[in-house]
């Protein structure tokens, strides 16, 4: 089960953190960008290769501290096919370092097309007769629930079949998330509560040995009160918590997504780790050449921050 | 304005149809598959190249009859980076034939990430100083509204800046679409009605000369009654109508998405066109080698079917 592998890695590293690999080109130190542009020209390929080098050095520095990484597909698609090659290479490199890879793609479509998306990221693509290949080989994928269960079920089937996971959007971290998600229906429940009930239901057949399901949920750190309620509705879902750090969520805000067993949530940080070398906290200690060491220092600081908040609640 | 270009092409070809390019490998005639596998091996590249050849021959046969094509990203992502190269080549080939390209990706994310998706498909990616490149150059993109306006606005900005369009999911064609979309809120409106009001509002600053907006909506042909209501709520939105043909929607079902001016909707058909050569209607007249001619015959039949239904209402 994906969820068992995730929990075991969180326990081993004593760190419920996932590092988001959303590498905007401006985050990449100039020396890496310049080298790549010199080698490949100021092209999409040059940019994609710069990002790949940045990711690899980050992964070298932090892989022993964290259980998982979360590359955000948009930041690779924006460099076209070269960007997708960099995404693929990033995933492979992360896996070679023992990390779980959660692709953040928020994919969603009707059933037959959701099947194709699921094959792309979680399952296998049949080429001819018995010959199959993996397109992008990741461990889990974020998915969006606007189309209801028949847009989700193909992913769940692959979770069972291939030991993979999904995280379904429930309450997202952005400001306007309430525009749809906070609407209240005639039975006095909000859309995010109803989605949470679905997630709980959808995940019941892919539970692992720790009682958690490989069907998880996304609940932003920026909505700690809603997180408390959602934690109680989705007893068995692992919660992926974006919004810590740069988006304003604190470790205390994140605590509401955890269960009393200290499990149940994994907190994402992207910019605060990738750009640690330019941050107020670390820029005096680390030069751009030391960006990966700064990222490591920030990952360790964040781990302690989260573990302290969990201990103090 | 994207929407003006779309309307002019629909008028010129007298055909409110978009052909979905969702090329499952099993749809591709054996002679094309075998040739590609012989050249590139039974690999993801071989499969992707088979699909690209299939698409190109289809486009050669139908481009003068239709205003637009809609490649579905899932069916390219499932062949990995090679699939994305085939997607890119398909889009370029379609544009070279004078077709508008609507990428069906149902992308969605928080604001900064939606910006990256928008750059990927509609805008431009900045590489260095003033140097910009287009990642995937399409005319319009489908987007999913679960995150509210700040996940949509970056796309709308690029619609204005780069003469592009979006189609926002409102009421999708699949069976379980009601699980979220039909929920009724305390002001007695369904989610799809509320989303339709948003779409109307979001599109008001990107209207073209025919009174329609470059912010359109997706409303499935399988829900004709809802389409009638949604047509009246979204006065200025062009409606992309999936679900005709293989999914069970008829031309009469589609009519409800059109305005009295005969405009306002574009109907998608994928499988019924791509697989025309295997269908009951056409398989006696066309061999697998004639798949593109069969697709053309089906496109012409569908055009007449829609135009008759529009004339008879």
From TrEMBL, chains A, B:
SMART domains: OMPdecase
Matching Pfam families: OMPdecase
Keywords recorded for this protein, A-Z: Decarboxylase, Lyase, Pyrimidine biosynthesis
Domain annotation Orotidine 5'-phosphate decarboxylase: ranges: 16-286
Molecular function, one GO term: orotidine-5'-phosphate decarboxylase activity
Lyase as UniProt keyword: yes
Enzyme class, spelled out: lyase
HAMAP family membership: OMPdecase_type2
Protein name: Orotidine 5'-phosphate decarboxylase
Upper lineage: Bacteria, Bacillati, Bacillota, Clostridia, Eubacteriales
Gene name, Swiss-Prot/TrEMBL: pyrF
